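Subject — a protein and its fold

Tokens — whole-number codes for backbone shape
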Amino acid sequence: MKKNKPTVYLETTIPSFYFSVRQEASIQVVRDWTRNWWDQRRHQYDLVTSVAVTDELERGDHPNRTEKLALLREARFLPIVPEVSQIVAVYLKHQLMPRDLAGDALHLALASLHRCNYLLTWNCQHLANANKFGHIRKLNDLLHLPTPDLVTPLELGVDP
């Protein structure tokens, strides 16, 4: 019997940091952790993402846009079904996330509705933030949704 791999929803910051060209030491460390996880660990997971991620990456003028989008080709794209907008509305009503409908609330709604094990992100302000976990879980419990673990690549294991 084949064992299913845990599902990881790839949020926009993952391809963004993988191809970051910024020179600050802290950014280079995050870039290296992201690359390490992607190169060494991604095969342990079923990778998923959404058009919300590609839409974010297609906006604005930034380096390596084509490469960032190409990185997502390995991921399966989750459908944005009508229930997602209802979930996002609840998140926004309860001030769980900023009002950018195409952003954090949408990523969390998709990962929750599609029962992802993890939402992989470097957004430690609105998503991978221990101070928000309780509020996120409470709202998802009220919505009868599972809550994915909101983690960074470092938390899913990177090799030294």
The first helix runs from residue 13 to 18. The CA atoms of residues 1 and 55 lie 38 Å apart. The chain is about 45% helix and 10% strand.
